[in-house]
Amino acid sequence: MNSTLNILRKEIREMMTRSTLLPVVVIAILLGAMGSMMGGIEEAVTGAPTVGIVNDDTHGDLAAIAVGIVGNLSEVVYDGNDVDEGVTAVDEAGGVALLHVPANFTERITDGESGTIQIYWIMRGAGLLDSISSEAVNSVLWNVNRAISTHLIDANASVNSTLALNPTTRTETTIFGDKIMDGISPGTLGSMLSAQSFVVPLVMMMLIMVAGGTVISSMGMEKENKTLETLLTLPVKRGSIVTGKLVASALIGLVMAAVYMVGFNYYMTGFSASGELDMEKYDIALSALDYLLVGISLFVTLIAALALCMILGTFAKNYKSAQTLTMPISFLALVPMFMIIFKDFNTLPLAAQVLLFALPFSHPMMAMRSLMFDDYALVLGGIAYSTIFAVVAIALTVWIFKTDRLLTGRIGKKEEGRSKTLLMAISGRKR
Predict the structure, then answer these.
(1) List of residues 6+ apart from 211 with CB closer than 8 A
(2) Is the pTM of this model over 0.85?
(3) Domain of 137, in residue numbers
(4) Backbone angles phi, psi at 411, to 5 degrees
């Protein structure tokens, strides 16, 4: 019985370490943050949206009903007769849409046709939560439709049932930055970009975790098998050792990335073939230069990730301990992935933008979506930052290799002396 309790205590001590508890704490924080974001969805949907109104049917009673409903259920920041001026006013006020009621609105419905409301959507981000506010406008328009239906039925009991149920239709134009996309709503555009929101960050996260975990595990195994000690005794520059390990790992990572991207290409082709995704129509298709920039961003970020993993690998005592060291890399990949899926970089608070930009793994995840909307400054800035991060990480890795921390576990004069003695002993055994 005592031996069983002793083994139980030993196993608990080995498992309840900082490396095992930290992931649980971080995941709990991430889930809490996601819960807070989700909690704001209901408020965004049910709250009063900020809109503008251009009513050209000033003498129509049905137009008056529509404008009245919009005014009661929304915060109107523009009420005039110029569409361009209205769009600018709504945009500056941080609003969602401009609603344009044409001059023949009441006349068309009276003649038995559906009246058309033109909606100019102001879209600021392509994340899943960025198009939620448009649902509040849809709710307002549903109330407009219902109020006009009630008026038609009360005024004429024999009104056409189809017209009574659907007295209005809409035409939509989405304005995203400098792009004006006719015939599409933010919700539809968000659905079209869902592949970018989910697949690209997910592929990047998997790539970083798999390639990074391989590097850390490899270093842990080399320490456990004593092959690293032998390698350090060879007349090879430490910089060459680091370069060789990085290049080999990067090539394997690029092969995995190519496989992922081929699968992603077939995924996107399936959508295009079904007619659900037409990038060319809305001028958001990527050019050859765009794909080149994505590849460069992926490459420099992969090098930075592998160099960072090699630094973490120096703390591994054996293969088992190396497995726990992959957690920091996993977190650094998970955090930007969730942030990018739910929110666009441009719609995040400043503190979150700084955090996201500081994480080099986030830049390839944002690259494709940013290039679709011609945000080259963010992509080029991310490539420059990731390159600097990679150079610093490589320089730090080479320095650690030169200090022989791999053998002693510490950096200092005493430890360097011990490591030199150990290397001399190893060299003597080899001879």
Answers:
(1) 249, 252, 253, 256, 302, 305, 306, 309
(2) no
(3) 41-190
(4) -120, 120
